[in-house]
């Protein structure tokens, strides 16, 4: 589903990604961890072409993103992304936030899109908030709307960039529960998170990044039992 081959990325003279080789299969749940500034968000954003790579090859869902001729809008329909700060439209009701892309981008009729939106709001457990505005919802509820909005495009892959980092502790669990349920349903997911309990329980693979490099790519059992890399050990010991 996702393949990086010898990918490098620079911001001016600063190299943010260094020789990334990474293959993610359909249905896998991959958690990316690492210190702040290590390149996790950049790696994720390359996967839906919010960032372009400097060199190497990157193929996502059968599309060669290093090829300058790709139809980005068509490509992005298949990749859902959930951000730390939800990025909902504040002046639109919950339901209208979800209906927008399917009607505008996919050309789905309003009534069909609304029915689909309700299905996904049920899926994330907040169908009773359909007519509310984002500001009337808790952070956890807003993030669940953002997930429902992503799902409504019926994506092949869902990307999550620290989806619970901006939430009050008591609402983190409800968002992780939704993500866990998506994982169990077989969704291909790439998740940047500091929630190690979630990583341990839900991930098929844990990837540890530092200074633009992938230093480890292991199962959670292996990684949490004994990371191979000193820098990963130091990172984990600081979290506890
Ligand atoms: P992480 O998500 O692991 O915290 P990022 O991918 O956001 O790391 O950033 C990695 C590094 O790249 C950081 O040093 C950051 O300052 C730098 N960086 C990120 N975006 C840009 C940008 N648009 N221009 C220049 N430097 C950037
Ligand atoms: Mg980040």
How would you concisely characterize the structure shown here?
Belongs to the ABC transporter superfamily. GO terms for molecular function: ATP binding. By secondary structure, the protein is α/β, with parallel strands linked by helices.
Please describe what this structure looks like.
This protein is of the alpha/beta class and about 240 residues long. It has helices at about 40-45, 70-75, 95-105, 110-125, 140-150, 170-185, 195-200, 220-225, 230-240; strands at about 1-10, 15-25, 30-35, 55-60, 65, 80, 155-160, 190, 205-210, 215-220. The protein has a six-stranded mixed beta sheet with strand order 6-7-8-3-9-10, with helices on both faces. A four-stranded antiparallel beta sheet has the order 2-1-4-5, with helices on one face. The longest helix is centred in the last third of the chain and has 16 residues, at about 170-185. The mean pLDDT is about 95. The structure holds adenosine-5'-diphosphate and magnesium ion.
Protein traits:
four-stranded antiparallel beta sheet; globular; binds magnesium ion; alpha/beta; binds adenosine-5'-diphosphate
Shape estimate: globular
Query: Mean of residue pLDDT?
Result: 96
Biggest sheet descriptor: 6 strands, mixed
Q: Which H/E pattern describes the elements?
A: EEEHEEHEHHHEHEHEEHH
The stretches of 5 or more residues where confidence is low (pLDDT under 50) are none
> What is the spatial order of strands in the main beta sheet?
6-7-8-3-9-10
Give the count of helical stretches.
9
Query: How large is the share of residues in beta strands?
Result: 25-35%
Report the end-to-end length measured between terminal Cα atoms: 33 Å
Calculate Rg over CA atoms: 18 Å
Judged by helices, strands and strand pairing, the structural class is alpha/beta
Query: Which percent range fits the helix content?
Result: 25-40%
Bound molecules: adenosine-5'-diphosphate, magnesium ion
């Amino acid at each position: 589903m996702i393949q990086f081959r010898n990918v490098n990325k620079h911001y001016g003279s600063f190299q943010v990604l260094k020789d990334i080789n990474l293959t993610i299969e359909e249905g896998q749940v991959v958690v990316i961890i690492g210190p702040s500034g290590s390149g996790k968000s950049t790696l994720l954003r390359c996967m839906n072409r919010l960032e372009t790579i400097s060199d190497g090859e990157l193929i996502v869902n059968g599309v060669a993103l290093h090829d300058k001729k790709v139809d980005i809008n068509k490509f992005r329909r298949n990749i859902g992304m959930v951000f730390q700060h939800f990025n909902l439209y504040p002046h639109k009701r919950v339901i209208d936030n979800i209906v927008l892309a399917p009607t505008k981008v996919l050309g789905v009729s309003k009534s069909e899109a609304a029915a689909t939106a309700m299905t996904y709001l049920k899926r994330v457990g907040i169908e009773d908030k359909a007519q509310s505005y984002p500001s009337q919802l808790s952070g956890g509820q807003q993030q669940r709307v953002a997930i429902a909005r992503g799902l409504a495009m019926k994506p092949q892959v869902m990307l999550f960039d620290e989806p619970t980092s901006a939430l009050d502790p008591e609402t983190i669990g409800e968002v992780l529960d939704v993500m866990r349920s998506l994982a169990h349903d077989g969704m291909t997911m790439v998740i940047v998170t500091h929630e190690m309990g979630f990583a341990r329980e839900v991930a098929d693979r844990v990837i540890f990044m530092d200074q633009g490099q992938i230093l480890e790519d292991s199962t959670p059992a292996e990684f949490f039992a004994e990371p191979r890399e000193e820098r990963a050990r130091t990172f984990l010991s600081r979290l506890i």
